[in-house]
Amino acid sequence: MKCRKILLKENIMTKAKVTGSKAATSASKTLTSGSTAPKSKTAAGSALSQTKAPAKVTSAKAATAASKVLSDGRTNKDSKTAAGSALAQRQGRGKK
Fold first, then answer.
1. What percentage of the chain has pLDDT greater than the value 70?
2. Domains of the chain: which residue ranges?
3. Whole-structure pTM value
4. HSE-up (13 A, CA, CB side) for residue 54
5. Does residue 13 have a pLDDT over 90?
6. 1, 29, 47, 63, 82 from 79: Cα distances, Å
7. How far is the C-alpha of 47 from the C-alpha of 59, rounded, in Å?
8. Region (Disordered) spans which residues (predicted)?
9. How many CA atoms lie within 13 A of 88 on its CB side?
10. Other CB atoms closer than 10 Å to residue 59's CB: what's the count?
11. For residue 58, what are the β-bridge partners?
12. 3-state SS, residue 37
């Protein structure tokens, strides 16, 4: 019974995430920029595809790209905003 209560509590607390308007605007700017690196565009595309789609999650490839974008000091603010949004929507792998 205790296990069931925990599962129900987790289901109630789980919220589907979508890309907000600020992050979507940043993702759009990133995708239309000619000087943006491919990794930034991958992360931005993932974030933009999740604008109104709570069922979608960021793929492993896009999450890796987003992580690299966030750790690169040369990346601009719009690219980092889009990458952060994509990474926030990565499905958790759970505890091993």
1. 80
2. 16-88
3. 0.77
4. 4
5. no
6. 46, 8, 11, 13, 5
7. 11
8. 17-96
9. 19
10. 14
11. 90
12. coil
